[in-house]
Specification:
By secondary structure, the protein is α+β, with helices and mostly antiparallel strands. It is 56% helix and 16% strand. The model has no long low-confidence stretch (mean pLDDT 82).
């Protein structure tokens, strides 16, 4: 019973932290009724399929079902200082952790990609127009984070790729043109003896 109580307390703490995150939401992601329905059905199925006569097992089952349902019920989106996603408590997804934020108009609304050199990238979808999202970011993003459109991002990526290719070509040319390249050992000895004779 102790482990069930501890698990329930941990879950309660997690749900409370997530609820606090929800209060910071300024712009919510595109809502999906399918996600909510799937989460609730999955939680009910867990209870229905694994219910037993053991009270402690059933308590564990209910805790697991609540956790699964909460994933579908909580919203994601943008806060004033961070991206609000499920499980991103404290400073886990502060805007300052990203190098670039890319906005793009898509058929269903606006897609925002958060890109970091260290941690890769992920995207969120919004019902709001791109102009509204960009205005929000202009007001809230730190100075060190670049706000780009999809076109600006593509241009920057092409430029970076060209710079990388040029850097590799320069390195290859330097290797090919070094004086000792492709000299066999006996040729190197001959060159040394010539230098010695001239001296």
């Amino acid at each position: 019973m102790t482990d069930v109580t501890a698990t329930a307390l941990l879950l309660g703490g997690l749900l409370y932290l997530e609820w606090q995150q929800q209060r910071q939401l300024q712009i919510k992601t595109k809502s999906s009724w399918l996600k909510v329905v799937v989460a609730i059905v999955a939680a009910l199925l867990i209870i229905a399929l694994f219910w037993s006569a053991n009270t402690i097992s059933n308590l564990r089952l209910v805790i697991l079902a609540i956790l699964v349902a909460s994933v579908g019920l909580y919203c994601q989106g943008l806060g004033k200082t961070k991206v609000i996603t499920y499980g991103s408590v404290a400073h886990a997804s502060d805007y300052r952790r990203y190098d670039r934020v890319i906005t793009e108009t898509i058929k269903q609304g606006t897609m925002v990609t958060f890109w970091s050199k260290k941690g890769g990238s992920y995207s969120l979808m919004f019902d709001h127009p791109e102009a509204d999202i960009r205005q929000f970011f202009k007001e809230n993003l730190p100075q060190n984070v670049a706000l780009l459109t999809a076109e600006e991002w593509a241009t920057l990526e092409n430029r970076d790729a060209q710079d990388d290719r040029q850097r590799q070509a320069d390195m290859l040319a330097a290797i090919r043109n070094r004086p000792q390249r492709n000299r066999l050992p006996w040729q190197e000895r001959e060159r040394r003896s010539e230098v010695t004779r001239k001296a």
